């Protein structure tokens, strides 16, 4: 014995790391990402990420493009997701609302779901206006308080939950000082006052977004409908118009989601 201590991952550590790697891979679909990129994004050491990816590849949970060497989500995730779909999928109910928003406004419309401290974009429908914003794509994740969906959800959580989130999650290093706690709290107040959230080019300059929370049967913000477009199409007068449309569709979708469901349920 040399007196050294060998550190071994506990099962919880391994599961958490696998989850972080899979979530990182999901944000780069369908192109894929390098091992180094996934290591930076997941906050893990590159050798650890490479080892986890090799194990996930063997299980079919990730795939690797033979030409580029980039990592992508694997086919086994499709089958697992298909098995869980009946319990969690609400996109069929949301799709008509997203489409109506895109048709009525000409902008890109989206439906996102809350998952823990993040929102995940589930649906996208592009309107007729030829210039598009590409901040949101299906599968992309943002923390609560970031982008219009994340702000719409965060703003309508109870104050203690907002305090807890901002006390343990520092958004500024990854998303800029405009996402420091005081700035986020100001936008929470603005969102509550107007009913809808505004992202005035905080992620990509010139790309604006608006969002409205969609509530579950317990009156909690569990999803969001959003619109994105270029800055000149989001002047004050049009923001009022878009806000009215968003709130109407969000209210109608909330009503649909609150109706009794089969025993399997539809939960975020």
TrEMBL record:
Share an example GO biological-process annotation for this protein.
negative regulation of DNA-templated transcription
Q: Which UniProt keywords apply?
A: DNA-binding, Transcription, Transcription regulation
Q: Which InterPro entries match?
A: GAF-like_dom_sf, HTH_MetabolicPath_Reg, Tscrpt_reg_IclR_C, Tscrpt_reg_IclR_N, WH-like_DNA-bd_sf, WH_DNA-bd_sf
Pfam families from the xrefs? Answer: HTH_IclR, IclR_C
Keyword Transcription among UniProt keywords: yes
Q: Which residues form the IclR-ED domain?
A: 76-259
- What protein name does the entry list? Transcriptional regulator, IclR family
Query: From which lineage does this chain's organism come?
Result: Bacteria, Bacillati, Actinomycetota, Actinomycetes, Propionibacteriales
